[in-house]
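Appendix B. Extra example for self-study. Work through it before the problem class; the solution is given directly after the inputs so you can check yourself.
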Amino acid sequence: MASLPPIDLPAGTSGEGAFDAPVAEPSREKLFDYLLRLGDDSLILGQRLSEYCGHAPSVEVDLSLANMALDLIGQATLFLDLAGEVEGKGRDGDALAFHRDVLDFRNCWLVEQPNGDFAQTMARQWLFSTWQKSLFDRLANSRDPRIAEIAAKAVKEVAYHQDLAAEWVIRLGDGTEESRRRMVDGLDWMWRFVPELFEMDGIAAEAVRCGIGVDVAAFRDDYDRRLREVIAGAGLEPPADQRPILGGRRGHHSEHLGHLLAIMQFLPRTYPDSKW
Amino acid sequence: MVALARARDDVERIWAVLESVPDPEIPVLSIVDLGIVRAVEPGRVALTPTYTGCPATQVIERDVRAALDAAGYRGVRIDTALSPPWTTAWISEEGRRKLRAYGIAPPLPAGERTVACPQCGATDTEEISRFGSTPCKALWRCRACAEPFDLFKCH
Ligand SMILES: [Zn+2]
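Solution. Structure tokens for the complete assembly:
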């Protein structure tokens, strides 16, 4: 049997190296889903905060909540516009925000929780913004430059949200008997939605594998440490761990989200394509 | 050579057009003073938003379009550049002077911690609220003249 001819190797190669592993690209569907998670968290919390407009306990607080809402809706616009572009079906951020049904939303449960009293609102904000700050710090290094630049832009604003909410947690927790009781109750209610923030499912894992998303589990310890510091500063004890509630990333939501969407989507759905 | 000179003239004229476009929220500042014009080329202008949720962003783009059209630059494209993110360090010296004259304390230079009252110049001042009348401003109070004022936040 004739032997195979020798292989001509390019100059300078030994023929013994491994191939460079090709960098994986996430599928279009998975990237779309990942972007919806990012955009929907911001959109829904922004909508929740905007409910305070004209109703906050003081004019300064009214302004700060409205401005946080604007920051969040700004983030949502960027992430959802990008999601629409990735999806490639001609939907933009507005179409995704106003013409999707509740089962298609990918936000976490924490952000859709009702405002409750002011302490509950601040407990929610603090738990979320502390998480979002760490998330965006890391997302700013995403291999997808479009995601990286949105995160780098937004993280500066989120740092403010985190500081502002932490100040209120301390002020109310370390305030009067009533403010303390309300903050304890607010934290107790919101605490059960924290584990979902750190859930890693197939889509999140795929985004990490491709260098596009963030391994949230990796900053859980750091997050817990930050929480403990502020809770101690407020003179409170961390709430007892509760049965975690999961499912928002797969479209399973509390009843509250449907009510929120009914208000948010009413106008554009009733008068499609209206301009003013 | 002629084409090159014309392109250079165009770039200068476009800058002049942009200098005439006021920021909708702080109209004493032009968008050039504010530092949001990131690039001017013969066929293209790049703007960067100050804050992601700033409602003025769309107004600014519309105003720039109108100003360019009126000056005969209908073909100049307007791009949005998110990266690198805008920082208050890009507000010009002229912009800082105008802010102070308008009653807004300009953003503090790096390392500076004392906020001077834009009304009376006193440094005995305190923060009332981190968030002021617009996303870019914080609400402060002067203990010397007892007047509240806006501080342009460092960002
Ligand atoms: Zn003064």
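Self-check: Chain A has one domain: 28-266. If your reasoning did not lead you there, revisit section 3.
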